[in-house]
Structures are given as C-alpha cells and as structure tokens.
User: Fold this.
Amino acid sequence: MGAQRMTVTLFIPCFVDALFPRAGISMVQILERLGHKVAFPEAITCCGQPPFNSGYWDEARTVAAKVLPQLANAEAVVIGSGSCGAMLKVFYPQLFENTPQATLAKQISARTWEFSDFLVSKLGVTDLGAKFPHKVTFHDGCHGLRELGLKKSPRALLGKVSGLELVEMGEAETCCGFGGTFATKFPMISTAMGEVKCASATETSAEYIVSNDSSCLMHIQGLLSRQGSPLKTIHLAEVLNQQ
Amino acid sequence: MSFVSQFKAQAQVMAGDLRHRKIIRTALRNYEIVRDVRKASFQDWQGARQLAAETKWQAVNHLDKHLEQFAAKLESRGTKVHWASTAEQAREIVLKIVSDKQAKSVIKSKAMTSEEIHLNDALEHAGLNVVESDLGELIVQLRKEAPYHIVFPSMHLTRDEISELFQRELGSAATNDPEELTMIARRALRKKYLTADIGITGANFAIAETGMISITENEGNARLTAALPKTMISLIGIEKVLPRMEDLALFLPMLATMGTGQQLTCYNTLYSGPRQPGETDGPEEWHVVLLDNHRTELLADAEQRDALHCIRCGACLNVCPIFRNVGGHTYGTTYSGPIGSVITPHLRGLQDWKHLSSASSLCGACTETCPVKIDLHHHLLQNRRNAAEQKPSFGEKTAFKLFAFAANRPALWNFGKKMARIFQPLQGAVQGSALDPAKAWTKTRDLPPLAQESFKDWWRNRK
Assistant:
C-alpha cells in the first residue's frame, strides 16, 4: 500500500492558512518525505462551513461550488482538520443533493481524507520517524471523532513517536466548545465548555494538547493563554514532523 | 423578553455557576458509570440500537394503523379513549372528566405530557388539589418550578436543599439522609393516594397489539396512582406506540439502561383496562387521552420524523455539554437538551425557538448515545437551515453574502488577510473592550496572531 507514489491534493482550511500555517507546512513535508507529490490549488479559500453551519446553505453552496472544480481531478484530497474534512466528506453530498454537482460532490467525498486517517488507513504508515520527547494529551475534535469516526488513527501515529508519552484526559470525547460561529453567538456556553476541557487536560499534567483539528486548538489555546496556563497546544502534523 | 433573550440571560448566569456545574457533573458521572455497566451487559448494544430504531420506525411510519388498533383494543375492555389534537383540547377533556366526577383532588404520577400541556395549572385553576407522587416531581412541585430534567426532575438540588424544602413545606425534621427524606415524602403522599378522586398517569409505551400501556418506575407511586383512585386518566403522546408486546423485551431494558443505568426499573406494570367484572381492585373508570399537539406535523417532516422515535430516556441530555453547563431550566421548554432543541421548534414554532438549535456546537454526542438512533445533531443543523430559509436574519444573510463574495475572489480574500494582519495590533489595543470587533471571542479568550507568512505565502515562496 505505502509503496505507491501518489499526487496528494492538500486542502488547507482558511484559518490554517492565515493562523496556523505550520500545520500545513508540516503536512507537505511529511507527505513529500514519504515520496508523494503534493499539489495545492491556490484558488481555494474556504470550504463554506461557516454559512453552512449557520443555516445559510445558498451562500455555503456559492463558496463550495468554487471548490468542487478545483478538486475534480484530484487523486486524493487530504485535509488536516476533521471539521473541514467532514464538510467535504459528509456535508458536501448533502449540500449538493439534487443539484447538477451532486455526482461530483459524491466523487470528491469518496476521495477525501483527514490527514491522520490518510496516513494510517490509505498509506498504511504509522511510524514517521518523529521524535517529540514530551508528555502530551490528545483532543478529539468532534467532527473528526463522530462524523468521520477517527479515534484510532491519530493515536496509532502518536504511539510511534519517539520519546512521546500519551496520557488520555478525563471526558476525552467531550466537546471543547468551539463549534464555529457557536463560539461567538453563545460565548458564555462555549467558554464554560472550554473551561471544562482545559481543566481535564490540565489534570493530566501533560505539556501539550495535541489535536488533528486546529480549530479546537485555537479555542483551547485562547482560553489557556488568557488563564496564563503553561499548557501548550500543537497540531498532530507538527508533532509528526519533528525529526 | 423574547424567548431567545431569556435563554441568553439565563445561560449567562448558569454557564458561570460553578456550584451548579459541579453538582451536575458529579450526578452524571455516577450515571455514566452504571449506564456503561448496563450497556455492556447487552450482547450487542449497537445491534440493539438498530433493532430499536427499526421498531420505532415501523411504529411511527404506520402510526395510523397502530393507533387505531391500540384504541380499539382499549375500548373492547371498557376504556374510554379520547383524541386530543391540541394541548387545549387535552386540558378540556381532562377538566370535563374531573368535573363529571365532581372531583376535588388529583394524584399524579410522572408524565411529561402533562407538563407539556400545563395540566397542573389548569387543574389548580379549576379549584382542584393536585399532588405529584414521583419524589423528584413532588420536590419541584413544592418549589413551584418545572422539572429540571425529563427523568431526574430535581437533580439540580442537594439533599440539604431538599431537607430545607421539606421542613418548610411538609413540617418535617431536618435530615440529609436520602432514606429518611424519602420516608418523609412517602408519609405525606400515602394520605393523598387514599383521598384522591382521580389518578393521572402518563405512559412509557403504548402496545398496539394488546391495547395496554406500560409504565416503568422505581417508587411504586404510579401503581398506587393507577390503583387507588376510582378514576384513572392516562395522558399519552401518540408517538409512544410500539407495535407488539414482545417489543417490550427490548425497550424496557433499553429505557432503564439509558434512563437510569438500571437493568430494569423496580416496577414495570402493564395496564389493560378498568376493573373488570369479578376483579377486586383497579379503577372503576379508565380514560386514555391520546395527545397530538403538533406531533403529526413532525410526522409530516420526512427529514426529522425520527424525532418521534424518542422514548424520553434523557440520555441525550446527560451527555450534552450544553445541557451540562446551562442546566435544564435555561431552555424554558418542557423537553430540554438535544431532543428538546430538536422538537420544540416543531411543537411551539420555529422562529421563536430556533435559538435552541443554534445553541449547540454540533458535537454529536447526543446522536452517538441515542438508543433509538435519532439523528439529533443533524436535525439541529436542519432547523438552522429551515429557520434561515423561512426568515433570514438581515445581518447574518448580508454577512454571509459578503463572505461568499470574498471567498470566491482569491485576490480580494488575500487582500483581506493582509489588511487583517495590519489591523490586528490595533485590535490588541482595545481587546475585550466595547470597541473590540471580536469581543464576543476576546472577552474570555485570546485571539491567535495572524501568521506573518501564511501557508499560501510559504507555498508560493518555495516554488
């Protein structure tokens, strides 16, 4: 499985591009080290999830309709976010149901992978030769966990990182409270949920919270920084790229 | 105040109430432990969920047939069946029976349908003495508040608070021993059973095949409510139907597992009719009121029809991080938590209650736990879509139109990114204040700095 060279089309979510480019860069470097060619359609800006989750499906479709042709010929589409991954894989087929793009949306959905799942399930790779001598805990983004069913892949990868100690937190599968526009529409609820998450992570006495979703980490890091906590957040791809 | 303003104001208070957060988390941690033990005792829990979903699908998609069969069987043994399209009709039916019987006092066992139609208010307004016999329901009744949770009505209270309440309302001595507290309530209730003219119950399941209702409980109070008064009234949502008696073999342990973490609840009783000739006990008359109250509208919605599968186990509330942080009363609805956020817009109006569908991170914990596989969090998403299609918010619609316009013009989008990078230090100067455009975020959270080199910059530079 792993021997076959592929052209991997990266989908870089809008906030990863602007706020967390190192997660994307790490993915490029990892995939290239594995011998694959990386393509990046620069015309893509956003998957359309903010309007979609707010109920404005027409506006979401306007954005997503520009994404589809950019990915039409991709051999594999890889996304370093369970949330945007779920948008393409699960929700695009719903968004384009009964439209002329329905077939294309389904085809792209079938070829779309979240990054950790692509490495483990598609490429059959778990050991990337990474070294990260730290105690970490892993946060499952809800979209990755429940829409895409990714519980094992990130842990399989972390298990092969030299020097890394993974400690699971209590209530590990509880949402961090980000939820996209929810975080600003209901900031009090979102913050309370984030506080519970931060407390669970802090109890592990880990140095880092690792996740395969930068959007959750943005929320968790925002709370931790405000609290003055020494706990840090880092994307899974960045951990796997530490040589 | 509008429903949304009330919700937000209450959520603001509750989300910061660390005492409440601790009480609920402690209570639910104990629930989770016993629930998981019981789930593990199923040979194939996921298979059981699938079978339950298929059975309820069958029941709900052929509701007309099952209801007719249920009613005909009930009538054949002398039960009077009433059909109520609305909450108002249901109240009128009950008030008419009460008035015909010249009743003065009513004892009730737990029935969320009666909360739904605000029956207690109507009965008290008509001059009746109404007593809730379920311990948790009695506690919230004495506090003059709505049930906090559909299965655990008083889970937000500590034993000390309950003791104080009993001292004040029932004149009992101070104690925080659960058994003693239960005995205080029992002593107060026993007299009420004996003097009540009418007993009102709900139902957990309505068996079409045999014309019986199944009531599942832990205190024996529903049995006494049904057995002692001369007249029994059962108020039942039409979605409670199960096609066959044998379906209970799955649904009784499933409800107990997810509701309270029990293999079976302590008492499970089937009621099949009023006292028959030659029988020594049971009510002389039994009235079954079948309540629609917008359920048929939900039935007509093919996308969300599965919400009628609900067996009111409360499992989705227990795992919901929103519920756990804002609490049951914040919703302002009879049914709270994820199932309440899904069905309340159908029962009471989409525009008035759409905020409950927005007040969710769409984490999906509810859907994952639901024993009858209701696609809860996706229904929240559909409610958002339906609400925006029906009556878009001008501000949001405009914002997303602009967003889509910019997203589809990469040059404009990249220009916006550059501008944001320039202006972010200015935002930092006013962070958290009224001038901060990001204050909904920054009041409690730091914003990450925009990268000096975006991924796209890096990609271009490397080529």
About this structure: The beta strands of chain A are 7-11, 37-39, 76-79, 112-114, 135-139, 165-166, 208-211, 232-235. Chain A touches chain B through 63 residues (CB under 8 Å).
